[in-house]
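Case 292 in the screening queue. Each case pairs one protein sequence with one candidate compound; here the compound is ribulose-5-phosphate. For every case the pipeline is the same: read the inputs, emit a complex structure as tokens, and attach any notable structural observations.

Predict complex for case 292.
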Amino acid sequence: MADQDGQKIAKNYEVGVAFASQGSFYVKGANNLDWGMKKHLSNIFDPKSGNTVMFAFDHGYFMGSTAGLERLDLVIPKLMPGVDCLMGTRGALRTCVPAENRKAIALRVSSGSSMLNEDLSHEIISVDVEDAIRMNADCMAVQTFIGADGQLSSIDNLSRTINAGLRYSIPTLGVVAVGKNMERTDRFFKLATRIVSEMGCQIIKTYFCDNFEQIVAACPVPIVVAGGKKLPESEALTLAYRSMQGGARGLDMGRNIFQSEHSAQMVQAIRKIVHEGFTDKEAWQFFQEAIQ
Ligand code: 5RP
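Case 292 output:
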């Protein structure tokens, strides 16, 4: 049993040294996976840039109707053209997203809390792998609460989803959640991101923080960055740029897209950063011109 005695602080992240186990497949950590897993991952991550623009609209699973998402049926089709991957609940997808869309699907499969709870860390697996197969999901998203009261059950949810995903070749997206009392520091995210990746998921979603490049270096699978609360568009674009510069393989923004007055143009500006190497300043200029 590993013990905590004599713990030394990790510091040799070799940031900038390429992932040594990349092999011939372009998605980090996926070289030894089977064809089906790779196919799903290539639906999510563009083979040219290696990156993805995910649009997250799964907030309703615990927040109810969120500002900007009051009408899923109107918002999602409007923003779909600019994104690579749709992250939503099965309820939102089946009712409000045309099945004939050509987007990758990140299916939210965990749930169990609501905004009425003080502690959001107690979830269940609410969508079984059979329904993920029916929906042709390209990955299954599970919230994981490291350091929270629900840590063990959330790791159990994640592990059971990964096990089912390996049986049916569907990747798992481990969502590193930040509980109310957690610090959004690199110390926390290094711990949480590494634990979640070692559970065996194929993609991780987490938040940007200081020393983000070290978190990326220590994580053997691709990281996409959640946007978090709504920021002014210029700041959200800087967040996107800094995330990509730090080694993220994409953004999974929600509120910074659907709460923007110019959400469609915001998606396009994020796309410029993720797939065309724009800086935040170039993307901001693009955005300002696009909204004229
Ligand atoms: C909600 C989620 C969201 O998918 C994730 O936080 C991205 O959305 P936002 O950019 O609005 O934070 O996991 O629980």
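Case 292 observations:
- The mean pLDDT is 95.
- The first strand starts at residue 52 and ends at 56.
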